[in-house]
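Continuing the series of single-chain predictions for the mutant panel. This is the parent chain; the variants come on the following pages.
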Amino acid sequence: MNRAKHTPGPWARHEGSVHAMDVSLIAQCSNNNGWEVAQMNAALISAAPDLLAVVRDALGLMTDNSPEIQALRARSLAAIAKAGGKS
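Parent structure:
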């Protein structure tokens, strides 16, 4: 599976911004619904590299041919594609 060409994690959140470990800025979040929403958006973005790794790892465990597992596998593959810029 091709790996996305994004800034490698881990990423860290500081208030409304997300930085890579080399301190390069990944995202600056703001929101018209308030500072708390912006901080939670930054928290979600900072978790992205970890979440992507977990989904990739979990794919190897999705070997059951039940409809539920196959649906989960399809959703996982779609999420990985979206993270790689393909949707």
